[in-house]
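go over whats below:
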Amino acid sequence: MRKHNSSHISKFYTKTHKERLRIVQAFSQLDESDVQFLKTPSSIDFHTANRMIENVIGIMPLPLGIATNFLINNKNYLIPMAIEEPSVIAAASNAAKIARQSGGFVATSSNPIITGQIVLTNIKDILSAQENIETEKKQLLHLANQQDPIIVELGGGAKDIRTETVHTQRGTMLCVNLLVNVQDAMGANIINTMAEKIAPTLEKITGGTALLKIISNLPISKITTAQAIFKKDIIGKKTVEDILDAYAFAQSDIFRCTTHNKGIMNGIDAIAIATGNDFRAIEAGAHAFAALEGNYKPLTHYYKNEQGNLVGTIKLPITVGTVGGITQSHVIAKTAIKILQVNGASELSQVMASVGLAQNFAALYAMVTTGIQKGHMKLHKRKLILRQAQDEK
């Protein structure tokens, strides 16, 4: 069990590499092998990489940093983030420090229900096909669950089948939605295997042809939220009003809204990469969710409460795993999850949403006060100095 340490660490950025590692080690109870992995510039060798993807010629590391100050659902976190962009981790840490004065972040996550789609074509009588699927639903679910009995034992597995007709320029198709509780896995392999297994049976009972058997990366049943209060006494009354104006503009202008949401994903993606999760799937789902009602909108929402403080919320689908995939085979991903000390995928998604909200608030705060470039370019200058020093060697 984690000791009651605080993630509020004064001037963490001024400490040496060794000091930072020892702080993280003590906070997350890492063993010496974990620390050694973090010391190694590339903790993945060629043979491991060659098993992960095709045609490997090398390995491209990213900086792995720690965001401090996060208090989420009354629990302290040090948050590993893998990213190349300067100021992101500093901004998130500063936003978390402000939110901490009001109790930090409150986050929730719904059941991990993910959809697999089996798309059937060439069906003569779609209504009869839907009735046949409903009749055989129990058997279809049983067949799907035979593909992963372990997840079923843990309380997950295929839970329901729903059908819908989709009218396309190539004709009417029948989409069979397989709803699967993936527990602490990201779920792609589980769902794709299930979908491919039941497709031949669906063909037999509908008379159609199974065209697609694939997961959807828009998990509208797997929604994560987070909320935080940013006190007017800390950020200033004028800043509260200016952030509300900036948010209103993002609601009304798609060009600003795109960058608004990109800043959110700066934080979420960085955690996904650090923990070995599919940040591309998270990105796709988030942006589709932002446009779900027909117009692309911000993933965050801001308003002023009765005390005049700024309240920020975020709502988006986040599908991640803490078991399976490279979360178990990549030593840095395993260590990152160990640093987080999360109890499963739902908690990890709550951490991600909280960081996404923090990142967004920090960007808005910077833009309406000093400007986004002041902190960004200060850290960017450090990169230029490093590059110059390397060129001179």
User: Anything to note?
Assistant: The first strand starts at residue 64 and ends at 72. The CA atoms of residues 299 and 383 lie 31 Å apart.
